[in-house]
Amino acid sequence: MTAYLGQAFVYLVAAVIMVPLAKRFGLGSVLGYLVAGVVIGPLTGLVGAETETLQHVAEFGVVIMLFLVGLELQPQMLWQMRSKLIGLGGMQVAGSALLISGTALLFSVDWRMAVAIGLIFALSSTAIVLQSHGEKGWSHTEGGRSSFSVLLFQDIAVIPILAFLPFLAMPEPDVVADLVHGGAEMAGAAGEHHADDSLADLPPMIYGLAVIGAISIVIIVGQFLSTPLFRFVAKSGLREVFTATALALVVGISALMSMVGLSPALGTFLAGVVLANSEFRHELESNIEPFKGLLLGLFFITVGAGISFTVLVDNLGFLIGVTVAVIFAKALVLYLLSIVFKVRGSDRWILTLSLAQAGEFGFVLLAFSLQVNVLTPEMVELLAMVVALSMFLTPLLFILLEKVLMPRLEKANNEQQEEDVIDEKGQVIIAGVGRFGQIVNRLLLANGVSTTVLDHEAQRVDLLRQICIKSYFGDATRLELLHTAGIDEASLLVVAIDDRERAIHLVQEVKRHYPNLTVLARAFDRGDEYQLEHAGADIVVKETYHSALYMGGEALKALGYHPFQAENLKQAFNQVELESHPELRADWISTKHEKGISASYKELFIKLDGALVQAMKKDRSDTHSHEERGWTPPPAGYDDLLEAQQAGHTDGKARSGQ
User: Fold this and answer.
1) Residue 417 above 80 pLDDT?
2) pLDDT given for residue 562 in this prediction
3) pLDDT band at 650 (very low <50, low <70, confident <90, very high)
4) Alpha-carbon Rg of the chain, whole angstroms?
């Protein structure tokens, strides 16, 4: 017992230390887990043979992950993915397998081994890709969706690959004595699972019926039996029982799929899709998500711990060469396919670099290939190391993509596109039309105020044009473009640029050349607000201030405060903020060269908080009754009644809110 607790402690401490460090330096959690595994495994030897057993347990994290992914997809969405699922996914597996197999043949590898190697390396890591895409917010991009389609096809392709590998068996089997050697141990249990399936020896027709029956059971249970079951469990009011039920569902489906020789991950994904419209979907997600994160983290640690420094050092040149060749070959195939399927820009590189590695199913297929005498033990040991190294390098590819390629692609795309010809001039010029500028623009247009909208992101401009909002591509910080946009005749300039430095520079330049023009600017925080005011902006609005103040008022009303009193408290809060603003700004401007917050600014801020407390106490001491206040919010539907009255369809009752 002590030994198991000690090992668990080592794994947990390694994750707790390395993952936050990796996230802090922008390396992503996956690389943190992998490095943690290397540290406690080959580097220090704190963990040993149990790593291989844990890896098979941790692979269940991939199963849970695909179940959760399925919960996010409705059947009609899956049907919409069919072209990329079958077309892009099928061509990726076939193209990668052919290119890698052909390359292996050039180095005098037996054709049977070459085909097996090509099929094994054609698959990618579902665990790493989906985890990283979720962290970086790429899951809902075109590149992320295309990557998911390919990964889903790969999971399906594992079944026919396993069925095909025995036909590539070498003529003289000699594997029993070496079954426990090297790389076989990395996935022996998983490979044996496929060989020992209880239904594997059934006649083809009966086996096919068994597979159809298993899939039908998953659909029937998910569609008709799951809701009554979850309702029954939910009535108990015990969260842990609901969690146990959710886990039992996932484990049961995995066992059923394994029994008929199908991928457990594929089965649970199907179950997730079936349950996507369930009223318990969100509850299932919140209960199972922690297990997914823990098991996936454990899986990545075991991959890192499974790297053998001895094998790596003895075959360093060979392993690096093969790993780079595999990544390059798969990236080439994916890049060409992205052109065929019209995946453009940064999405093309997300698809290309995300799937360029070998995947966790590679360990399963390598062990199975050894078992059916397709590959030799020595070759399996080396190829398993290639799979692990390619997975280890994938987070580095993501860093390259995120930090280097994507900013350059965006910049090149903007620079290559010529600025639009501005054929209309508005009363107001809006620089930057992101989430903030869009609302300002829509309000002005709704009140008949003409605007000229400028933005330096071509994709954003194209998107706005699709929803019939006229906008122009161009760099609003260039005075020449502002002149073309009609700044000489404009009444206002609204600065809503996402880049703080560019926004401050724009305000300075405009005020220098057009001192009489009224400039309104969006600020991110207090410091940004002070700088924009110092640059000359006439009106500065912090983007979250008023929405936060509004929510604070709603919180007071939810706690039982009368709406009139809540409104007064908001106004009092705002008044104190306005009164303290000049003094705070003057101190901040005078001490902005200092690192951090100056002592004088801190003292003023504490003074502000004290003034707020006193103002709140003063207003709360008001003893007027609710009836005496004579104020209450308009009733529900008031705006609709008022609009109808203005259209001449109702009487004056709307005016009083009746």
Assistant:
1) no
2) 87
3) very low
4) 31
> Encoding tokens for residue 257?
């799929």
Whole-angstrom Cα distance, residue 256 to residue 173?
Answer: 32
Alpha helices in 196-280 (DSSP H): 204-220, 226-234, 239-259, 264-274
Mean pLDDT (whole number) for 565-575: 86
Alpha-carbon gap, residue 430 to 464, rounded angstroms: 14
Amino acid at 177: A
Both tokens of 244, joined, read: 């146990």
Three-state secondary structure readout of 117-184: HHHHHHCCCHHHHHHHHHHHCCCCCHHHHHHHHHHHHHHHHHHHHHHHHHHHCCCCCCCHHHCCCCCH
- The C-alpha atoms of residue 598 and residue 596 are separated, in whole angstroms, by 6
- Give the integer Cα–Cα distance in Å for 412 and 420: 16
Task: Provide the residue count of the chain.
Answer: 658
Instruction: Copy the structure tokens of residue 298.
Output: 């454990």
DSSP state of 654: G
- Region 604-628: mean pLDDT is 70
Residue type, 270: L
- The whole-angstrom separation of Cα 507 and Cα 524 is 15
At residue 568, does pLDDT exceed 90? no
Amino acid type, 113: M
Say if residue 643's pLDDT is above 70.
Answer: no
- Greatest CA span in the chain, whole angstroms? 99
Torsion from C-alpha of 117, 121, 127, 133, nearest 10 degrees: 180
Question: Could you tell me the two tokens for 5?
Answer: 């607790």
The pair of structure tokens assigned to 117 is 């190697």
Is residue 520 classed as helix, strand or coil in its secondary structure? Answer: strand
Contacts 24+ apart (CB under 8 A), 536-539: 536/507, 536/508, 536/510, 536/511, 537/495, 537/507, 537/511
> Residue 647's pLDDT band (boundaries 50, 70, 90)?
low
Looking at residue 570, its amino acid is K
Q: 97-102: list long-range contacts, CB under 8 Å, 24+ apart.
A: 97/121, 97/122, 99/329, 99/332, 99/333, 100/325, 100/326, 100/329, 100/330
Other C-beta atoms lying within 10 Å of the C-beta of residue 570: 18
Angle between helices 345-354 and 377-400 (to 10 degrees): 150
Residue 1 or residue 133, greater confidence: 133
Closest CA to 496 of 455, 449, 535, 462: 455
Predicted confidence (pLDDT) per residue in 98-126, tens digit: 999 999 999 989 999 999 999 999 999 88
- Taking the alpha carbons at both ends of the chain, their separation in whole angstroms is 73
Please identify which residue in the block is written with the tokens 């992998």: 34
Please give the angle made by the CA atoms of 503, 505 and 507, to the nearest 5 degrees.
70
Its pTM stands at 0.60
- What is 599-651 written as a DSSP string? HHHHHHHHHHHHHHHHHHHHHHT----HHHH---PPPTTHHHHHHHHHTTSS-
Q: Which two tokens stand for residue 540?
A: 């500065």
Q: How far apart are the C-alpha atoms of 114 and 111, rounded to whole Å? A: 5
Count of beta carbons in the 10 Å neighbourhood of residue 41:
24
Among residues 124, 132, 128, 133, the alpha carbon closest in space to that of 151 is found at 124
For the purposes of burial, counting CB atoms within 10 Å of the CB of 181, is it exposed (0-12), middle (13-18) or buried (19 or more)?
middle
User: Can you tell me the mean pLDDT for 20-33?
Assistant: 79
Q: Is residue 528 within a helix (H) or strand (E), and if so which, with residue range?
A: helix 526-535
